[in-house]
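Issue 218. Parser rejects a valid record. Input:
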Amino acid sequence: MRDDERGCQVAVSTGTPAAHARRATGLVAALGLLAGAAVLSLLVGSEPVGIGQVLRVLLADDRSDAAVIVHDLRMPRTVLGICVGVALGLAGALMQSLTRNPIADPGVLGINAGAALGVLVALVGFGIGTFRGYVWFALLGAALSTVLVYAVAGRGPGAGAPVRLALAGTAVGAALASCAEGIVFLNPKSFDEYRFWIVGDVAKPGMAVVGQLLPFLAAGVVLALALGHRLNALALGDELGGALGVRVVRTRVLVGLAVLLLSGIATAAAGPIAFVGLAVPHLAGRVTGPDQRWLLPYAAVFGGALVLLADVLGRVVLPSGELRVSIMTAVIGAPFFVVMVRRGRSA
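Output the parser choked on:
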Protein backbone atom coordinates (compact mmCIF):
# COMPACT_ATOMS: atom_id res chain seq x y z
CA MET A 1 0.00 0.00 0.00
CA ARG A 2 1.33 3.45 -0.93
CA ASP A 3 1.96 6.11 1.71
CA ASP A 4 -0.95 8.27 0.57
CA GLU A 5 -3.34 5.32 0.87
CA ARG A 6 -2.02 4.51 4.36
CA GLY A 7 -2.66 8.08 5.38
CA CYS A 8 -6.13 8.03 3.91
CA GLN A 9 -6.99 4.93 5.93
CA VAL A 10 -6.76 6.98 9.11
CA ALA A 11 -8.41 10.08 7.65
CA VAL A 12 -11.96 8.77 8.08
CA SER A 13 -13.09 6.10 10.46
CA THR A 14 -13.58 2.84 8.66
CA GLY A 15 -16.65 2.12 10.77
CA THR A 16 -17.79 -1.13 12.29
CA PRO A 17 -18.36 -4.30 10.27
CA ALA A 18 -22.06 -3.81 10.92
CA ALA A 19 -21.91 -0.33 9.36
CA HIS A 20 -20.14 -1.74 6.30
CA ALA A 21 -22.77 -4.47 6.04
CA ARG A 22 -25.59 -1.89 6.21
CA ARG A 23 -23.97 0.19 3.48
CA ALA A 24 -23.42 -2.87 1.30
CA THR A 25 -27.04 -3.93 1.80
CA GLY A 26 -28.16 -0.39 0.99
CA LEU A 27 -26.10 -0.41 -2.20
CA VAL A 28 -27.77 -3.65 -3.29
CA ALA A 29 -31.15 -2.02 -2.61
CA ALA A 30 -30.09 1.02 -4.63
CA LEU A 31 -29.15 -1.27 -7.53
CA GLY A 32 -32.61 -2.81 -7.19
CA LEU A 33 -34.12 0.68 -7.47
CA LEU A 34 -32.06 1.29 -10.61
CA ALA A 35 -33.21 -2.02 -12.08
CA GLY A 36 -36.84 -1.14 -11.31
CA ALA A 37 -36.44 2.25 -12.99
CA ALA A 38 -34.96 0.50 -16.04
CA VAL A 39 -37.94 -1.85 -16.22
CA LEU A 40 -40.35 1.10 -16.00
CA SER A 41 -38.42 2.82 -18.77
CA LEU A 42 -38.99 -0.20 -21.01
CA LEU A 43 -42.69 -0.48 -20.14
CA VAL A 44 -43.96 3.10 -20.04
CA GLY A 45 -44.56 5.39 -22.98
CA SER A 46 -47.10 6.56 -25.53
CA GLU A 47 -47.53 2.90 -26.51
CA PRO A 48 -47.61 0.83 -23.29
CA VAL A 49 -45.81 -2.50 -23.47
CA GLY A 50 -46.58 -5.31 -21.03
CA ILE A 51 -43.92 -7.03 -18.97
CA GLY A 52 -44.64 -10.29 -20.80
CA GLN A 53 -44.06 -8.64 -24.15
CA VAL A 54 -40.80 -7.11 -22.94
CA LEU A 55 -39.57 -10.50 -21.75
CA ARG A 56 -40.46 -12.11 -25.07
CA VAL A 57 -38.65 -9.34 -26.93
CA LEU A 58 -35.54 -9.67 -24.79
CA LEU A 59 -35.43 -13.46 -24.64
CA ALA A 60 -36.80 -14.53 -28.02
CA ASP A 61 -36.60 -13.57 -31.67
CA ASP A 62 -39.71 -11.42 -31.61
CA ARG A 63 -40.47 -9.30 -34.69
CA SER A 64 -43.69 -7.70 -33.48
CA ASP A 65 -44.40 -3.97 -33.11
CA ALA A 66 -43.48 -4.31 -29.44
CA ALA A 67 -40.02 -5.52 -30.46
CA VAL A 68 -39.49 -2.40 -32.55
CA ILE A 69 -40.56 -0.18 -29.66
CA VAL A 70 -38.38 -1.96 -27.09
CA HIS A 71 -35.28 -2.66 -29.19
CA ASP A 72 -35.10 0.43 -31.35
CA LEU A 73 -36.57 3.11 -29.08
CA ARG A 74 -36.72 2.31 -25.39
CA MET A 75 -33.67 0.12 -24.89
CA PRO A 76 -31.19 2.71 -26.23
CA ARG A 77 -33.02 5.43 -24.29
CA THR A 78 -32.84 3.41 -21.08
CA VAL A 79 -29.18 2.49 -21.37
CA LEU A 80 -28.21 6.06 -22.29
CA GLY A 81 -30.22 7.40 -19.36
CA ILE A 82 -28.31 5.11 -16.99
CA CYS A 83 -24.95 6.13 -18.47
CA VAL A 84 -25.72 9.85 -18.30
CA GLY A 85 -27.10 9.59 -14.77
CA VAL A 86 -24.07 7.62 -13.53
CA ALA A 87 -21.72 10.18 -15.09
CA LEU A 88 -23.53 13.22 -13.68
CA GLY A 89 -24.04 11.71 -10.23
CA LEU A 90 -20.35 10.84 -9.91
CA ALA A 91 -19.23 14.18 -11.34
CA GLY A 92 -21.41 16.07 -8.85
CA ALA A 93 -20.11 14.07 -5.90
CA LEU A 94 -16.52 14.68 -6.97
CA MET A 95 -17.15 18.41 -7.41
CA GLN A 96 -18.75 18.79 -3.99
CA SER A 97 -15.86 16.94 -2.38
CA LEU A 98 -13.21 18.87 -4.31
CA THR A 99 -14.64 22.32 -3.62
CA ARG A 100 -16.08 21.46 -0.19
CA ASN A 101 -19.19 23.21 -1.38
CA PRO A 102 -22.53 21.40 -0.88
CA ILE A 103 -24.17 23.27 -3.76
CA ALA A 104 -21.42 22.52 -6.29
CA ASP A 105 -21.96 20.58 -9.49
CA PRO A 106 -19.89 20.23 -12.69
CA GLY A 107 -21.03 23.69 -13.76
CA VAL A 108 -18.93 25.16 -10.96
CA LEU A 109 -15.73 24.67 -12.97
CA GLY A 110 -17.41 25.78 -16.17
CA ILE A 111 -17.14 22.24 -17.51
CA ASN A 112 -20.69 22.00 -18.81
CA ALA A 113 -20.44 25.41 -20.47
CA GLY A 114 -17.11 24.47 -22.05
CA ALA A 115 -18.47 21.18 -23.35
CA ALA A 116 -21.56 22.90 -24.74
CA LEU A 117 -19.43 25.50 -26.51
CA GLY A 118 -17.25 22.74 -27.95
CA VAL A 119 -20.28 20.93 -29.36
CA LEU A 120 -21.59 24.19 -30.83
CA VAL A 121 -18.25 24.84 -32.55
CA ALA A 122 -18.37 21.32 -34.01
CA LEU A 123 -21.95 21.78 -35.23
CA VAL A 124 -21.55 25.28 -36.65
CA GLY A 125 -17.90 25.57 -37.57
CA PHE A 126 -17.20 22.08 -38.90
CA GLY A 127 -20.62 20.69 -39.75
CA ILE A 128 -20.07 17.69 -37.44
CA GLY A 129 -23.38 16.28 -36.28
CA THR A 130 -22.49 12.89 -34.80
CA PHE A 131 -21.46 11.99 -31.27
CA ARG A 132 -18.31 10.25 -32.53
CA GLY A 133 -17.19 13.54 -34.04
CA TYR A 134 -18.25 16.20 -31.57
CA VAL A 135 -17.46 14.30 -28.35
CA TRP A 136 -13.83 15.30 -28.87
CA PHE A 137 -14.86 18.94 -29.21
CA ALA A 138 -16.92 18.60 -26.03
CA LEU A 139 -13.99 17.13 -24.10
CA LEU A 140 -11.62 19.75 -25.51
CA GLY A 141 -14.01 22.54 -24.55
CA ALA A 142 -14.42 21.07 -21.07
CA ALA A 143 -10.64 20.70 -20.70
CA LEU A 144 -9.92 24.27 -21.82
CA SER A 145 -12.54 25.67 -19.45
CA THR A 146 -11.07 23.65 -16.56
CA VAL A 147 -7.54 24.83 -17.34
CA LEU A 148 -8.78 28.41 -17.55
CA VAL A 149 -10.55 28.12 -14.21
CA TYR A 150 -7.46 26.70 -12.51
CA ALA A 151 -5.31 29.41 -14.10
CA VAL A 152 -7.60 32.15 -12.81
CA ALA A 153 -8.00 30.59 -9.35
CA GLY A 154 -4.27 29.83 -9.07
CA ARG A 155 -3.14 33.44 -8.86
CA GLY A 156 -2.76 35.60 -5.79
CA PRO A 157 -3.37 34.85 -2.12
CA GLY A 158 -5.26 31.64 -1.41
CA ALA A 159 -4.38 30.27 -4.84
CA GLY A 160 -6.29 27.11 -5.68
CA ALA A 161 -8.56 27.33 -2.64
CA PRO A 162 -12.00 25.73 -3.07
CA VAL A 163 -13.84 29.05 -2.79
CA ARG A 164 -11.62 30.61 -5.44
CA LEU A 165 -12.22 27.62 -7.72
CA ALA A 166 -15.97 28.00 -7.32
CA LEU A 167 -15.91 31.74 -8.03
CA ALA A 168 -13.57 31.40 -11.00
CA GLY A 169 -15.65 28.53 -12.42
CA THR A 170 -18.85 30.52 -12.16
CA ALA A 171 -17.29 33.48 -13.98
CA VAL A 172 -15.71 31.35 -16.71
CA GLY A 173 -18.91 29.37 -17.20
CA ALA A 174 -20.93 32.56 -17.64
CA ALA A 175 -18.40 33.90 -20.16
CA LEU A 176 -18.44 30.67 -22.19
CA ALA A 177 -22.23 30.55 -22.18
CA SER A 178 -22.27 34.12 -23.52
CA CYS A 179 -19.87 33.09 -26.29
CA ALA A 180 -22.20 30.25 -27.28
CA GLU A 181 -25.18 32.62 -27.39
CA GLY A 182 -23.19 35.04 -29.49
CA ILE A 183 -22.30 32.33 -32.03
CA VAL A 184 -25.94 31.32 -32.36
CA PHE A 185 -27.00 34.97 -32.70
CA LEU A 186 -24.47 35.64 -35.45
CA ASN A 187 -25.30 32.41 -37.28
CA PRO A 188 -29.09 31.93 -37.11
CA LYS A 189 -28.90 28.80 -39.29
CA SER A 190 -27.11 27.06 -36.44
CA PHE A 191 -30.04 27.60 -34.11
CA ASP A 192 -32.16 24.83 -35.61
CA GLU A 193 -29.40 22.27 -34.99
CA TYR A 194 -28.35 23.68 -31.65
CA ARG A 195 -31.80 23.98 -30.09
CA PHE A 196 -32.46 20.24 -30.35
CA TRP A 197 -29.25 19.51 -28.49
CA ILE A 198 -29.19 22.32 -25.91
CA VAL A 199 -32.39 21.07 -24.23
CA GLY A 200 -30.99 17.92 -22.66
CA ASP A 201 -32.68 14.67 -23.62
CA VAL A 202 -31.91 10.95 -23.81
CA ALA A 203 -34.58 10.03 -26.35
CA LYS A 204 -32.91 11.00 -29.62
CA PRO A 205 -29.47 9.26 -29.57
CA GLY A 206 -29.43 5.58 -30.49
CA MET A 207 -27.53 2.53 -29.31
CA ALA A 208 -24.57 3.48 -31.51
CA VAL A 209 -24.02 6.53 -29.30
CA VAL A 210 -24.13 4.32 -26.21
CA GLY A 211 -21.38 2.10 -27.62
CA GLN A 212 -19.21 5.12 -28.37
CA LEU A 213 -19.90 6.56 -24.92
CA LEU A 214 -19.04 3.49 -22.84
CA PRO A 215 -15.19 3.59 -23.08
CA PHE A 216 -15.13 7.20 -21.87
CA LEU A 217 -17.63 6.41 -19.12
CA ALA A 218 -15.68 3.37 -17.94
CA ALA A 219 -12.47 5.39 -17.70
CA GLY A 220 -14.18 8.16 -15.74
CA VAL A 221 -15.93 5.76 -13.34
CA VAL A 222 -12.77 3.76 -12.58
CA LEU A 223 -10.77 6.93 -11.96
CA ALA A 224 -13.49 8.43 -9.76
CA LEU A 225 -13.91 5.35 -7.56
CA ALA A 226 -10.14 5.03 -7.16
CA LEU A 227 -9.99 8.51 -5.60
CA GLY A 228 -12.29 7.77 -2.66
CA HIS A 229 -9.48 7.26 -0.12
CA ARG A 230 -7.69 10.46 -1.10
CA LEU A 231 -10.85 12.54 -1.02
CA ASN A 232 -11.50 11.34 2.53
CA ALA A 233 -8.13 12.73 3.55
CA LEU A 234 -8.57 16.02 1.69
CA ALA A 235 -11.88 16.54 3.49
CA LEU A 236 -9.77 17.27 6.59
CA GLY A 237 -8.04 20.15 4.79
CA ASP A 238 -5.13 20.43 2.41
CA GLU A 239 -2.47 20.74 5.11
CA LEU A 240 -3.65 17.77 7.13
CA GLY A 241 -4.32 15.77 3.98
CA GLY A 242 -0.76 16.45 2.83
CA ALA A 243 0.54 15.45 6.25
CA LEU A 244 -1.30 12.15 5.86
CA GLY A 245 0.62 11.48 2.67
CA VAL A 246 -1.85 12.67 0.02
CA ARG A 247 -0.36 14.53 -2.92
CA VAL A 248 -2.83 17.38 -2.88
CA VAL A 249 -2.13 18.92 -6.29
CA ARG A 250 -2.05 15.59 -8.10
CA THR A 251 -5.27 14.49 -6.42
CA ARG A 252 -7.02 17.69 -7.45
CA VAL A 253 -5.81 17.26 -11.02
CA LEU A 254 -7.08 13.67 -11.11
CA VAL A 255 -10.43 14.70 -9.68
CA GLY A 256 -10.65 17.45 -12.28
CA LEU A 257 -9.82 14.93 -15.01
CA ALA A 258 -12.52 12.53 -13.81
CA VAL A 259 -15.10 15.33 -13.66
CA LEU A 260 -14.02 16.49 -17.11
CA LEU A 261 -14.51 13.02 -18.60
CA LEU A 262 -17.79 12.29 -16.88
CA SER A 263 -19.43 15.65 -17.35
CA GLY A 264 -18.03 16.18 -20.84
CA ILE A 265 -19.34 12.92 -22.27
CA ALA A 266 -22.72 13.27 -20.54
CA THR A 267 -23.16 16.77 -21.97
CA ALA A 268 -22.03 15.65 -25.43
CA ALA A 269 -24.41 12.67 -25.45
CA ALA A 270 -27.56 14.20 -23.98
CA GLY A 271 -27.03 17.95 -23.76
CA PRO A 272 -27.00 19.93 -20.51
CA ILE A 273 -29.03 18.22 -17.78
CA ALA A 274 -29.21 20.22 -14.57
CA PHE A 275 -29.62 19.37 -10.88
CA VAL A 276 -28.60 15.70 -11.10
CA GLY A 277 -25.04 16.49 -10.02
CA LEU A 278 -26.39 18.75 -7.28
CA ALA A 279 -29.10 16.61 -5.72
CA VAL A 280 -27.74 13.07 -6.04
CA PRO A 281 -24.65 13.47 -3.80
CA HIS A 282 -26.87 14.77 -1.00
CA LEU A 283 -29.20 11.80 -1.32
CA ALA A 284 -26.23 9.45 -1.28
CA GLY A 285 -24.63 11.24 1.67
CA ARG A 286 -27.75 10.81 3.79
CA VAL A 287 -27.28 7.05 3.45
CA THR A 288 -23.50 6.71 3.58
CA GLY A 289 -22.27 9.70 5.58
CA PRO A 290 -19.11 11.53 4.44
CA ASP A 291 -17.07 8.45 3.50
CA GLN A 292 -16.32 8.94 -0.19
CA ARG A 293 -15.51 5.27 -0.68
CA TRP A 294 -19.23 4.55 -0.27
CA LEU A 295 -20.71 7.88 -1.31
CA LEU A 296 -19.28 7.72 -4.84
CA PRO A 297 -20.80 4.35 -5.85
CA TYR A 298 -24.11 5.34 -4.25
CA ALA A 299 -24.07 8.61 -6.21
CA ALA A 300 -23.47 6.71 -9.45
CA VAL A 301 -26.42 4.37 -8.86
CA PHE A 302 -28.78 7.09 -7.61
CA GLY A 303 -27.82 9.28 -10.57
CA GLY A 304 -28.80 6.59 -13.05
CA ALA A 305 -32.09 5.95 -11.24
CA LEU A 306 -32.96 9.66 -11.03
CA VAL A 307 -32.43 10.29 -14.75
CA LEU A 308 -34.50 7.22 -15.70
CA LEU A 309 -37.36 8.10 -13.34
CA ALA A 310 -37.34 11.71 -14.57
CA ASP A 311 -37.48 10.45 -18.16
CA VAL A 312 -40.38 8.11 -17.37
CA LEU A 313 -42.31 10.93 -15.66
CA GLY A 314 -41.70 13.14 -18.66
CA ARG A 315 -43.43 10.59 -20.89
CA VAL A 316 -46.68 10.49 -18.86
CA VAL A 317 -47.03 13.93 -17.27
CA LEU A 318 -48.71 15.43 -20.36
CA PRO A 319 -51.86 14.04 -22.01
CA SER A 320 -50.07 14.18 -25.36
CA GLY A 321 -46.37 14.53 -26.10
CA GLU A 322 -43.41 14.33 -23.74
CA LEU A 323 -41.32 16.62 -21.56
CA ARG A 324 -37.59 16.26 -22.04
CA VAL A 325 -35.60 14.78 -19.21
CA SER A 326 -33.70 18.03 -18.51
CA ILE A 327 -37.01 19.77 -17.82
CA MET A 328 -38.10 17.02 -15.45
CA THR A 329 -34.80 16.99 -13.54
CA ALA A 330 -35.17 20.75 -13.10
CA VAL A 331 -38.75 20.30 -11.85
CA ILE A 332 -37.52 17.68 -9.38
CA GLY A 333 -34.23 19.34 -8.46
CA ALA A 334 -35.26 22.97 -8.05
CA PRO A 335 -37.56 22.34 -5.04
CA PHE A 336 -34.85 20.13 -3.53
CA PHE A 337 -32.37 22.98 -3.89
CA VAL A 338 -34.77 25.47 -2.25
CA VAL A 339 -35.47 23.12 0.66
CA MET A 340 -31.77 22.46 1.13
CA VAL A 341 -30.98 26.16 1.28
CA ARG A 342 -33.86 26.90 3.64
CA ARG A 343 -32.61 24.24 6.01
CA GLY A 344 -29.20 25.86 6.09
CA ARG A 345 -27.43 23.06 4.25
CA SER A 346 -25.71 25.39 1.79
CA ALA A 347 -22.31 26.92 2.45
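Fixed in the parser; the record now loads. The longest helix spans residues 65-99.
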